[in-house]
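Hello again, I could really use a second opinion on something today. I owe you a coffee for this, so here goes:
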Amino acid sequence: MQMNEVQRVPASRDKVWAALNDPLVLQSCIPGCQSLEMTSPTEMTAAVIVKVGPVKANFTGKVTLSDLDPPNGYRISGEGSGGVAGFAKGGATVTLQADGPDATNLQYVVDAQIGGKLAQLGARLIDSTAKKLAGEFFQNFANALSPPVPESPAPEASAAEGTEAPADPEKKSWLKRLIS
């Protein structure tokens, strides 16, 4: 399976780079991620639950970062075992390009192999699931890096004070005409 996509992330390149290297941010963004721990500056261990069609698997594995070029990108490689469901291994080259001061284009090129029961499900199902999971990751990632939306002010507490809210002006004029 191969995927090659560009995603626009609403944050500066430095913020995107920092988030791509923060296990807490990544864990919160990866669909089904149960744990992600940094074991060294370039290695992590992960536990992820993935459902592909009728097969649900708990994968545990190791992720390695290489070809580090801060804040421009890196190569991420990993392999994991899902028990009887099979295995997955592969990697991605990630490149970051600034798109103005407050946005970054994140390009990734993924190459992955799977085996076991998962491989028997068919390329279409696997490809569509991989694209769906990638889409969920990038939506979560963009949300995690987006500036917080300010809360709208609370409506005035006239009802709480025991007074009624003012009537709609059109209704009021209709009532006046009826009474008159």
